[in-house]
Amino acid sequence: MSGKDRDPCVKFLKAQRNSELFFAAFGSMREYLSEEYLQTLTEEEALNIKENDKSLYICDPFSGIGFDHLQKIGCRIVSPQVIIFCIQHHRCIPKSEYPVYNMIMADIIISCTSLHKETKKEIHKYVQMMGGRFCRDLNMSVTHVIAGQVGSQKYLVAASLGKPIMLPTWIKELWKKSQENCMARCKDINMEHFKCPLFLGYTICVSGLCALERRAIQHLTTEHGGHYMGHLQMNECTHLIVQEPKGQKYEYAKRWNIHCVRVQWFYHSIKKGFCQDEAMYKTEPVLETKSEPCISTALGQNNEASGYINESTHNSVMNSNLGSLLENLQNLDISAFQAPVNLLDGCRIYLYGFRDRKLDQDKLRRLINCSGGICFNQLNDDVTHVIVGDYDDELKQFWTKSTHRPRIMEAKWLLECFNKGYLLSEEEYSQLNCQPVEIPISEQPGMKRNNSFSEIEFADAEKHQQADEDLLSQNDNEDMIVDDDEMSGAEVFNDPSHITVQMENQSSFGYNLLPETPTIIEGLFSQKNFLVVGFSEEDESFIANAIKENAGKILPLQSRMLANYVVVPLLGCEVESAVGEVVTNTWLITCIEQQNIFDPESNPLFMPVPVLEGSGTPLENCVLSFSQFIGAEKDSLVYLASLLGARVQEFFVCQGSAKNDMLASTHLIVKQPDDSKYQAAQKWGLPTVSMAWILETAKLGKRAEEYKFLVGNLPKQE
């Protein structure tokens, strides 16, 4: 066998039933590849191949002894329609452990939950055969979740993030459609027919409800994919809906570990469009007291008559019973509050004096975090408010010795704010006569910002509040996002730019008043202040939103607070000297993509890139391709190279094609000398250089000498 035959090539497998698409794909590839790297072979020749030779095989049809043999030895196989699609859309040909038949699921990334192992394996196979990608763990790049039933941690997080939850039959229908029309697209299928019903996999029983409401729940349960059972049965029923936490059914349900939830769980699930977390609607036995009925009891009486939640009744009941709620927080129904999602924006709160009232503390903590506040685990200089349960001398001593003066507030202030939906004056509820922490105007809780992110309608606030509550309620579990079978790891196929959704386990709340580093409900940029400078209004809004979504704080330009990071464009801009680290949007997006705060000096693109003013286009007539660069790093290099006059192409080709608007490549930018593009560049005699060549060209204002930046011959680091 000659050296040419051993090199990776594009090989078309001839068969008796080759379609017109097969020959069309072959003709298209001839415009990109020389005859040296484009071959045809018969089935007999295919059978003589003994191992995977790293070539790309185009097979049509996906059957026959040649196809079966190539698949068995692990060769990379695609169909002609994949070749045509990728050329038309200027895409790279996908890599997959299965033969890729079509691209109907291009740009779709699937994750699965609550499926049998064999079903998940089958979905994994068909998704890749249709050009999609499969991700075992849920992350921000996942576009759809396939669920066998509702209620898992992955389901709750995905639904709260607004990701479509689909049935396995959706994948089967897509595969069927692609057989009828090989160039079909995913949007050709009506997704509404394949969305996961709200109560799929649940068997619901009720107790203590009137006949009218029983019939309504029975009808709605069946309508939304669940199963209704009149009698409670062990190992069959999954949920018991109760009016009050008492009765024989309730006692047996607790004994059998059946979810016991209030009726609001059922109606809120329907209202929100996905099954809610049962932890937010748990029922607990109510101790007999002489105080007025708690909110949950009053709401229960109202719901028995109507079967639905009446928000105006919620408010009137809370107004009349707020005093008794303070005396008995354990009976507080936190789902009854409908406060705006940004009510406590800017408030950094420490809960003190709840040492023997862990349940009360947890409820207040959830209220704080689902309304835009941050709940601290220790008292330190960042705290703006201290909510006191039991006031004692220890707090007073700390106050007299401390130079930091947060507001010391009664819990009643917090509940009144949630009740009314806006921040009340702090003076009336202050426990100590003190000066409050100075908060910049732009950080004042409840103040409207002059950007689109702060102009939230009440309906949207309610939606976001519930989503936050759903996410927050999972913090009590060991893992926020888990894979639902025995598989482990975080393998993401061809998914370099994802942002994994993760949250660390929460520590139990401590009561040491020494100013230690707090453990708070964190995001990537928790306790980090940012300035965003030098961008257009649209880009600034996008960057600010990304920072906020990862728990960072945006400071106004006139703020007296010192920013930890000043985010500027790739080429930099003028900033004041008295600031923290100056970083680029490349650094920011890379940190978010990889959920890690990188040292700005670890990559030259993380700090402003110097470009000689008036240097023109020193890379004019250069045609560049990039290999091994991904995400924001690649985007920034493409932008910089284009700015310097280079033509950037996704495809690395030795010959141009006027028909496809492709020029012959002149340079390959790589990190390591170990991929197929690098090998091709060596054969074609084209320079393979590091990104430092582009950066040096920008700095000098003229084309840098390639030999100084050849990969494998890089300058030694000092």
Mind explaining what this structure looks like?
Helices cover 32% and strands 12% of the residues. The strands form 6 sheets. A 4-stranded parallel sheet has the order 2-1-3-4, with helices on both faces. The chain has a 4-stranded parallel sheet with strand order 6-5-7-8, sandwiched between helices. Strands 10-9-11-12 form a 4-stranded parallel sheet, with helices on both faces. The chain is of the alpha/beta class and 718 residues long. Helix 7 links the parallel strand 7 and strand 8 (165-166). Among the domains are: 10-89, Rossmann fold; 109-194, BRCT domain (Rossmann fold); 203-280, BRCT domain (Rossmann fold, 3-Layer(aba) Sandwich), CATH 3.40.50.10190; 348-420, BRCT domain (Rossmann fold, 3-Layer(aba) Sandwich); 529-594, BRCT domain (Rossmann fold), CATH 3.40.50; 623-708, 3-Layer(aba) Sandwich (Rossmann fold), CATH 3.40.50. It is flat, with a radius of gyration of 31 Å. Keywords: Repeat.
Work out the helix count: 22
Quote the CATH topology of the domain at 109-194.
Rossmann fold
Termini gap: 47 Å
Number of E-state strands:
24
If you average the pLDDT, what whole number results? 77
Radius of gyration: 31 Å
Corresponding CATH architecture of the domain at 109-194: 3-Layer(aba) Sandwich
Strand order of the largest sheet: 2-1-3-4
Global outline: flat
Largest sheet: 4 strands, parallel
Highest CATH level, the class of the domain at 109-194? Alpha Beta
Low-pLDDT parts are 1-5, 288-326, 433-521, 713-718
Any idea what the CATH superfamily of the domain at 109-194 is called?
BRCT domain
Instruction: State the secondary-structure class.
Output: alpha/beta
β content, as a range?
A: 5-15%
Helix content: 25-40%
Keywords: Repeat
Organism: Phascolarctos cinereus
Domain BRCT: 100-173, 194-283, 339-431, 520-605, 614-711
InterPro entries: BRCT2_TopBP1-like (IPR059215), BRCT_dom (IPR001357), BRCT_dom_sf (IPR036420), TopBP1-like_BRCT0 (IPR049542), TopBP1_BRCT_1 (IPR044737)
